[in-house]
Specification:
Strand content: 25-35%
CATH topology of the largest domain: D-amino Acid Aminotransferase, Chain A, domain 1
Distance between the termini: 34 Å
Helix content: 25-40%
CATH architecture of the largest domain: 2-Layer Sandwich
Number of helices: 11
CATH class of the largest domain: Alpha Beta
Radius of gyration: 20 Å
Number of strands: 20
Length: 369
C-alpha cells in the first residue's frame, strides 16, 4: 500500500483476518501503519524512484490517497504488476478539473463550474463561488469560499476550478466497490454533518434520512461512475442533495473514505474488507446494514499542538454500542483526524443523543503546547 495513514492501518487490520500481508510505504516513520502492517518502509509516496522500487517487491499495489507518484504506478503496471485502482483512474480523480470534465462528458449531474485561467483577472461567474485547487487539496485544505470582490482578489493563484455555490439540504455519500470480474456492490447512502470551520466531516449517520427514490438515484449514479471509469477497487461518491431535490456529485475518492468508517461495526462487510476483496478479485461481501449507526470524527482540539493526549475515553466506553478507533498518531494539531467513534442504536434519535455525548466528553489535546 502506498501511504501509511489511518486508512492503511484499518485496511491492514482487516487484511489480517485473511492472512494477507500488507506492506506500507510512507514518509513518516511514526505513521499509523508503522506498527500494524506486516512490513513498513519509510519513503516519499510522491517520489518516482521510492514508489517504483517499493512496488517492485509485491504482486498487487494499492493506494491510501490519490496524491502519489502516478508515473511510478503506471510503470509498475507496464511491468505486469496489478495496480488498483488503475493509474489512469488515479490521474483523472487526482485533478478536480479533470474530474468535473469527466462528469460533464458522461452526463453525471454536478454543480456548474469553470476552469480558472490563472492569468485571468476578470471574475468569470457570478458570486458566491467556491474555489478548489485542481491538485493537492484534502480534508478541507485547498478550498476557498468567495463571496466578495475582496475575497476574489485573495483567491488561489494556482490551477483550480470555480463552482457555483449550491443551495443544498444534505450532504450524502455512497461507497461502492468493483472487482476485476465486473462485480459491483455498494453500501447504503450515509448523511454527513460538516464542521464548517475545518470544512471536513464532523460526524455522519447511516442510513441517511432520505426518500427511497433519492437513495436509488444515488446508487445508480455511483454505479455509473465506477463502471464508466472501469475502476477496480472502492470508490466514495459525495453528493449534494439540493433544496429542490436534485442530486449533484461533489467529489469522488478512489479509496476507503471517512464517510465509510461506520461500516466496521454497522455493516456485515466493512469498506476496508471490501476494498481488499475488490483488488484481490475475490467475491464482494454483503453490504447490508446490521444496525443503524453514526461515526464521529475525533479531531485535534483547536489551540492544541504537540504530543497527543485523549481525555474522556472512560466516558465514551460507558456508552452502550460505542466502538473507539484511535489512529496511533503521536502528535496532534487543530482539526487533525486522530480517531473516530462508531455508535450503534435502535433509531436516529438515540444515535444522535450518543453522538452529542461523545462530542461533549471526548477530545484530543496536546500534553505540551
Amino acid at each position: 500500500m502506498i501511504g501509511g495513514g489511518q486508512l492503511g492501518r484499518m485496511f491492514a487490520q482487516e487484511a489480517m483476518n485473511l492472512e494477507v500481508e500488507v506492506h506500507c510505504l510512507d514518509g513518516d516513520a511514526f505513521a499509523p501503519c508503522a506498527n500494524v502492517a506486516h512490513g513498513f518502509t519509510q519513503g516519499s509516496i510522491q517520489d518516482y524512484e521510492s514508489v517504483l522500487q517499493f512496488g517492485r517487491n509485491f504482486d498487487t499495489i494499492t493506494v491510501e490517497m490519490e496524491h502519489v507518484s502516478i508515473e511510478a504506478l503506471s510503470q509498475l503496471e507496464r511491468e505486469g504488476k496489478k495496480v488498483y485502482p488503475q493509474p489512469k483512474v488515479l490521474s483523472l480523480i487526482k485533478d478536480k478539473g479533470l474530474q468535473k470534465q469527466f462528469y460533464q462528458r458522461h452526463g453525471i449531474p454536478t454543480a456548474n463550474f469553470c476552469l480558472l485561467d490563472t492569468t485571468e483577472n476578470t471574475l468569470p461567474m457570478d458570486l458566491p463561488l467556491v474555489q478548489k485547487l485542481c491538485v493537492g487539496g484534502y480534508d478541507g485544505k485547498g478550498i476557498k469560499v468567495i463571496r466578495s470582490m475582496e475575497a476574489w482578489e485573495d483567491r488561489f493563484k494556482e490551477a483550480s476550478i470555480l463552482e457555483e455555490m449550491v443551495a443544498f439540504n444534505k450532504e450524502l455519500s455512497v461507497i461502492i466497490a468493483r472487482n476485476a470480474r465486473g462485480e459491483v456492490r455498494s453500501f447504503g447512502a450515509v448523511e454527513c454533518e460538516f464542521n464548517t470551520e475545518a470544512n471536513l466531516v464532523e460526524f455522519q449517520f447511516s442510513p441517511a434520512d432520505i426518500l427511497p427514490e433519492i437513495e436509488q438515484e444515488a446508487q445508480a449514479i455511483a454505479r455509473k461512475i465506477i463502471e464508466t471509469l472501469d475502476m477496480v477497487g472502492i470508490l466514495a461518491v459525495e453528493f449534494f442533495l439540493t433544496k429542490d431535490g436534485r442530486l449533484l456529485v461533489n467529489e469522488i475518492a478512489p479509496r476507503p473514505h471517512n464517510s465509510g468508517h461506520h461500516t466496521l461495526e454497522c455493516c456485515i462487510t466493512s469498506q476496508f474488507a471490501q476494498h481488499l476483496r475488490a483488488i484481490s478479485n475475490l467475491p464482494l461481501g454483503d453490504t447490508m446494514l446490521r444496525s443503524p449507526g453514526a461515526m464521529v470524527n475525533i479531531l485535534g482540539e483547536k489551540g492544541h499542538e504537540g504530543v497527543a493526549k485523549f481525555e474522556g475515553l472512560e466516558n465514551v466506553l460507558k456508552i452502550p454500542g460505542a466502538y473507539v478507533h484511535l489512529y496511533g498518531k503521536q502528535t496532534t494539531k487543530p482539526f487533525r483526524k486522530m480517531g473516530h467513534v462508531t455508535l450503534l442504536g435502535k433509531d436516529l434519535e438515540e444515535i444522535k443523543t450518543k453522538v452529542n455525548l461523545v462530542k461533549r466528553h471526548f477530545r484530543c489535546i496536546a500534553t505540551q503546547e
